[in-house]
Specification:
With 267 residues, the chain is α/β, with parallel strands linked by helices. The protein has helices at 13-16, 26-34, 46-56, 71-78, 98-103, 106-109, 125-132, 144-147, 154-157, 180-185, 202-209, 220-229, 253-260, and strands at 3-7, 61-66, 86-91, 114-118, 121-122, 137-142, 162-165, 171-175, 192-199, 235-240, 245-246.
Length: 267
């Protein structure tokens, strides 16, 4: 598997919210106001680190799902197509949710399996390589202890989706924003989703079949649920006990910058 899709068309509403306790450089503060998290300068633009990590993991064909006004990102990333990666851009006309964004990638994917990741997360090599080497559909499932080594606090972690395996060890369902009772009554190790997936082209039928969510969006978790329970697709669970660097809000920027300082980008 050499194809990867990066979801980069989000509005970045939480990044645009000013947080006065955060110390940012002038260029970081300016970028934060746009909400374009993938272009945030954290040494280099954050997207550079994501692209380099994909290249290091063996991915060669990259599709960036961008918004209609993301010309700066397109110009920046286009310069890397003569190196280790072949980069393509597909515009998501309006922000209709993550399942809609994935569906936009169908012309790029064709009949091949492909990786899907967020543009505001820096994933460990074990997750990217593990999914590339898997077969069929799969999801990276993160242990909370490993995520705790990154910049995601335990309080914030409880707002992430949880992956529940079935009796055969494959993914049975995704629990979005579980409540406190869920964690208190859990009888199995908690596995967290950071939206890091290996899909087959079957996911496109699922994305086309789901209704709008209460948030008036087409949600990727709903498409995965449809693929499991209606299309009977099995999702292998690839367990990862390492951190993910999460660039959601302005308060994340200084720590992400510090942690990526030693990473040498090779594009």
């Amino acid at each position: 598997m050499e194809k990867a899709v990066i979801l980069a068309a989000g509005r970045g509403s939480r990044m645009r919210q000013t947080q006065h306790s955060t110390t940012l450089t002038a260029s970081q503060a300016e970028l934060a106001r746009t909400g374009m998290k993938a272009m945030m300068p954290v040494g280099r633009p954050f997207i550079d680190y994501i692209l380099a990590s994909l290249a290091d993991a063996g991915f060669r064909q990259i599709c960036l799902i961008v918004g209609p006004d993301h010309d700066a990102m397109r110009r920046h990333c286009a310069g890397y197509t003569s190196g280790r990666l072949n980069i393509r851009f597909i515009v998501q006309p309006s922000a209709q949710g993550t399942a809609n964004a994935v569906a936009c990638a169908a012309p790029f994917v064709g009949d091949d399996p492909f990786l899907v990741i967020n543009a505001d997360n820096y994933y460990p090599a074990t997750a990217l390589t593990g999914l590339r080497q898997a077969s069929g559909a799969a999801v990276a499932a993160f242990h909370p202890a490993g995520l705790g080594q990154g910049n995601i606090s335990p309080e914030r972690l409880r707002h992430f989706a949880v992956l529940l395996p079935g009796l055969d060890g494959t993914l049975e369902r995704v629990v979005e924003k579980p409540n406190e009772a869920f964690f208190s009554n859990a009888t199995h190790p908690i596995l967290v989703s950071m939206n890091c997936w290996r899909f087959t082209p079957e996911i496109f039928a699922a994305c086309r079949s789901i209704p709008l969510s209460p948030r008036n969006e087409y949600e990727l978790t709903d498409a995965v649920t449809y693929a499991i329970h209606t299309l009977r697709e099995k999702f292998q669970i690839v367990k990862v006990n390492e951190p993910v660097l999460d660039l959601t809000s302005q308060s994340d920027i200084p720590e992400v910058t510090r942690r990526l300082a030693a990473y040498k980008v090779n594009l």
